[in-house]
UniProtKB/TrEMBL annotation:
PANTHER family: MAGNESIUM-CHELATASE SUBUNIT CHLD (PTHR42759:SF1), MOXR FAMILY PROTEIN (PTHR42759). It comes from Haoranjiania flava. One of its GO terms (molecular function) is ATP hydrolysis activity. SUPFAM superfamilies: P-loop containing nucleoside triphosphate hydrolases. This is MoxR family ATPase. The lineage of its organism: Bacteria, Pseudomonadati, Bacteroidota, Chitinophagia, Chitinophagales.
């Protein structure tokens, strides 16, 4: 069968990614790293969890990303936002069968999960039963109801937000649910200078949010996902990923170490991040930049204070090892 995917060109790919980032930054300022990490998970065909306080721009970024992509019907990609609350039911996400009086048959009415970009807002305010409704769709890109399985869109990307777990009325996400998120990041507040410029230019920024350009097609996003798979990663960097994963299982200060799936996810994200940075190969800087975002939420430490210390320690050992090897892509 003939392969219709255009030949990979790093310069062309980089231009498309820059165009997407510039378009997003018309509506949201001062969060370049977070934007790159979100796009990393998108191109790695994963999903992302953002833990932060309200009002830091998470919703705006999600909407802007969806509006930047032209869907199959020549309109913006299908964006859905679900506000998670304690009384939400799984059928509110998945959909349900309703009875058609004319045909005298039950027909399936699709829920908001059938979209391209999903914003699962304050996901940890819903019960674990509702949170689990996302497991199959995030892991297998499909939804099963009874004996029927419904495929989701080829591009299905979940951006979930959660309040800090110390806040009242929240349910900690189960380990199995956390493992479905390729990354967990903190959005954070912008620096003071950027915040001042936002206050001075908020009217222009709001206008930009209402008139976001569609800069890439859905097919181009799918192509970028395919390109990311073929980014070169040196066998010694793969070995470093393995060493870090195994080290988390053999440390007395860690209750639950990282799984094999965690290592595969890290490799996928390393490739996508290298592509975003304009390279067709992964280097040590990529490992240093994103490994903690991919691994830390999958590991259960004996105390919260140890998470940063140990993750830095595992990474430092491998960066030193790679430095001695002086590998070249």
């Amino acid at each position: 069968m003939q392969n219709n995917t255009p030949e990979f060109n790093i310069q062309d790919t980089q231009e498309k990614i820059k165009k997407l980032i510039r378009n997003i930054e018309k509506a949201i300022k001062g969060n370049r790293l977070q934007t790159e990490l979100i796009l990393t998970t998108l191109f790695a065909k994963g999903h992302i969890l953002i833990e932060d306080n309200p009002g830091t721009g998470k919703t705006i970024l999600s909407k802007t990303l969806a509006r930047s992509i032209t869907g199959a019907d020549h309109h913006a990609a299908d964006f859905k936002r679900i506000q998670f609350t304690p009384d939400l039911l799984p059928m509110d996400l998945i959909g349900s069968y309703i009875f058609n009086d004319q045909t005298k048959e039950f027909i399936f009415k699709k829920g908001p999960l059938f979209c391209n970009v999903l914003l699962a807002d304050e996901i940890n305010r819903a019960s674990p039963k509702v949170q689990s409704a996302l497991l199959e769709c995030m892991a297998e890109n499909q939804i099963t109801i009874g004996d029927m399985t419904f495929p989701l869109e080829k591009m299905f990307f979940t951006i979930a937000t959660q309040n800090p777990v110390e806040m009242e009325g929240t349910y900690p996400l189960p380990t199995a649910q956390l493992d479905r998120f390729f990354m967990k990041i903190h959005f954070g507040y912008v620096d003071e200078e950027t915040e001042l410029s936002i206050y001075n230019e908020y009217l222009a920024i709001e206008e930009s949010q209402a008139h976001v350009d569609e800069v890439l097609t859905m097919n181009e996003i799918l192509q970028l996902q395919e390109y990311a798979k073929n980014i070169f990663i040196h066998p010694e960097i793969v070995r470093s990923v393995k060493n870090m994963i195994v080290a988390t299982r053999n440390n007395p200060d860690i209750v639950l170490g990282a799984s094999t799936r965690s290592g595969i996810t890290l490799i996928k994200c390393l490739k996508a991040y290298a592509m975003i940075k304009g390279r067709d190969f992964v280097n040590e800087d990529d490992l240093q930049q994103i490994s903690s975002y991919v691994l830390n939420h999958r590991i259960i430490y004996r105390s919260k204070e140890l998470s940063k210390i140990l993750s830095d320690k595992f990474l430092e050992i491998e960066l030193e090892r790679l430095g001695k090897l002086s590998i070249n892509a």
